[in-house]
Amino acid sequence: MKYPALFGIGLLMLPCLAQGNAHTGIDKTISCHYGQKNPMVSGEAKLSFKNKTIHRIWFNSYFPGGIGQLGFICHIDIKRGDKAYAWQDNDLGLTVTAMETGDILQLKHDKKGYWLDFAKFKTLSKYCGAGADLPLDVFIPLSGKLCKIRLSE
Q1: The model scores a pTM over 0.85
Q2: Which of 10, 30, 114, 133 is deepest in the core (most CB within 10 A)?
Q3: Is 70 exceeded by the pLDDT of residue 125?
């Protein structure tokens, strides 16, 4: 064996890798992806839960550029406890408010899944590159891996 020390380190790390999300306390993650042709956009959304409560909201949307043009990305990664956001749980779901801008992200749920409502979360300079835009809303199903998105009214 050419590098026995690396093999030994790898063996020591196996228990850590086997724990998965145990060290983060994450109980469950649901996710989905989407893509459409007109306008061309693709992306994914994830919700992570701790003790049956949403702990993290993660969203990524990609708008490819045309010939000779760069593409743009919208990215949101919000964790409970992040001081830049205020989290308020309610009967229908959750409201997350960006402290700096006042933008509001509504998250509602029903028996089929979760709706991320971005209608009042539109400070593009913070979340999106020029030319990109957040969808109005995204549905993350409890079963299945395909999101439903609504880009405009």
Answers
A1: no
A2: 114
A3: no
